[in-house]
Design brief:
54% helix, 3-stranded mixed beta sheet, 11 helices, mainly alpha, Serine Threonine Protein Phosphatase 5, Tetratricopeptide repeat, elongated
Amino acid sequence: MSVHLSIGATQSTCPKIQILHGRRREFLAVRRLPLAERTNLSHAVFLTMPEPEDVPSHPAAAVRRRLEAVRGYCELGLPELARDELEPLRPSFGHLGEVMEMDLMILMMEKRWGEALELALRLQRLHPSQPAGWLQASFCLHELGRTREALERLVSGPRALREVPLFHYNTGCYLARLGKLRDAMASLRRAFEMDAEYLESARTDPDLAALRDQL
């Protein structure tokens, strides 16, 4: 597979975790997170750390702190502790995109692809304008060996996805696995133009083995 959360024969190693923090975007190279590499998170984008005004005003600070702790445990490769930290948020805040994404991250770390797919599809329905649900649902399909479905779902997402480099990278990876190498290179070039770091990842991505001499 190929990239990404930033979480292989069938699965891939991932170049990076893309985390969108409210209004700002931050990229963490997976190579800096050896524990994350060992869990092989791939093709995923996580929207975490909501701005205080993005959650109900009174408990905003407490929700933010707990989400930060959940993310920290995930980055350390400790999904069980992350789940324990997230549990108190579920009754009142389980519908928030940020909480759902953390839950999804945990499932993906544990490679529970079927459950992760169900949650990603629910995230899509409740928050259709956010890229996370579309990217992660397609990744889960890819990990389940349903790459054609993964591609179809990804390209059917909102126009805003085209502004995310990971969309183009993952599209290229899925196309490459389906044997559509010319189209795959076109998507990958777009990803490289938007974020040059993807080129380094592509050179070792198992999904792109057929394109190795063009990278």
